[in-house]
Amino acid sequence: MPELAPQRQAVLLLAHGTPESLDQIPEYLRNITGGRPMPESVVKEISHRYSLIGSSPLTELTLEQGRLLSQVLDLPVYIGMRNWKPYIADVVRQMRGDGITSAVVICLAPQNSRTSVGLYRRAAFAEAAGAIEMDFIEGWADHPFLAQAFAERLQPVWQSLSERIGSMAPVLFTAHSVPCRTIQASEGPADPYPVEAKRTAANVASLLAPLGLTPADCFFAFQSQGMSGAAWIGPTVEDTLTALRQEGHSAVVIQPVGFLCDHVEILYDIDIGFRNFAAGIGLEVVRPVSLNDSALLTAALEDLARKGFARLATKAASLPTPVAAL
Q1: Is the pTM above the cut of 0.90?
Q2: CA separation for the pair 299, 149 (Å, rounded)
Q3: CA-CA to 14 of 20 to 30 Å: which in 159, 163, 166, 219?
Q4: Distances (CA, A) of 76 to 66, 72, 98
């Protein structure tokens, strides 16, 4: 670890956030939409989904991911949420109060969407106000440990299903959909998110190729499209499941590659919504365990943090020495 006064270094992990109870969902949704009201029917539907899974464990699991990372780095790791408590601004304020002067900031969304990651970045830097030197990691979709972590979870489930059905089971990789307007740049390069999501999936699939998984067995869809009525990127999981059934498949493994722990998009959208939809068309859906406390995920975050601290050290070394220090 580069020596930058270690007691003043820290890592800040950023995540989406989730409400702790059903009565907090309306406020939570207003945070997501920037204050715009959601139709009452949407609020009720989302509340119903949360009620079916009891509660989302996202915050608890993210805190555990931070604890594991802190353990291997021997540095404080803070957790900030974009849409719920602990809010990013509050956590960065706490970091300043704790005397943190440099931090590596990692979004727990490996694929970079300029719109969403941009919101994380603005929130962190606005509250830091120059008091904390930040190395902000825009995206890490291609990190080898990330692919290995997903492959480690996927392999036994895919092999077991393939053996049971007597043929190579198809694998449907998924990532969260985003509104079309967020990736359609009026000027400049297109948003990298769809490309990076598919690249993560390809990296995972390549690790299972020696076991017989071929490109013809792999599919990709975007899940959890919003209910706002605007256009969201696809193809949808439902359309892809229908196409797989029409091709004669009886079972499929769904492997999300954009989520690092269990939350409503896993526990409801996949485990309840997609499974029920698939059952209705005669298709079985299985999925691997989410990364959650994966040692390989911790290794990926550790590597990102160490490289970030190295960049901070290089930057600090290149600054002119204050006259008072000469």
Answers
A1: yes
A2: 9
A3: 219
A4: 9, 10, 10
- The gap between the terminal CA atoms of the chain, to the nearest Å, is 26
Which DSSP string do the residues of 154-177 spell out, in sequence order? HHHHHHHHHHHHTSPPPEEEEEE-
DSSP helix, strand, coil percent of the chain (3-state; round to 5): 50, 15, 35
235 cis-preceded (ω within 30 degrees of 0): yes
In angstroms, what CA-CA distances link 313 with 114, 236, 239, 309, 324?
Answer: 26, 44, 49, 6, 21
Q: Is the separation of the CB atoms in 152 and 206 below 8 Å?
A: no
| 24 has a pLDDT exceeding 50 | yes
With beta carbons less than 8 A apart as the criterion, state whether 174 and 220 touch: yes
Count of beta carbons in the 10 Å neighbourhood of residue 138: 13
DSSP sequence for 19-76: -SSGGGHHHHHHHHTTTPPPPHHHHHHHHHHHHHHSS--HHHHHHHHHHHHHHHHTS-
Q: Which two structure tokens, joined as six digits, stand for 30?
A: 């207003």
Give the distance, in angstroms, between the CA of residue 284 and the centroid of all CA atoms in the same chain.
26
Q: Where in the chain does DSSP place strands (E)?
A: 9-15, 77-81, 102-107, 133-137, 171-176, 218-223, 251-256, 284-286
Bridge partners of 251?
A: 284
Nearest CA-CA partner of 151 in 32, 324, 300: 300
> Model confidence over 38-76: pLDDT tens digits?
899 999 999 999 999 999 999 999 999 999 999 999 999
Residue 86: asked if its preceding bond is cis (omega within 30°), the reply is yes
Q: Find residue 87's DSSP bridge partners.
A: 81
Single-letter residue type at 10: A
Distance separating alpha carbons of residues 259 and 175, to the nearest angstrom: 7
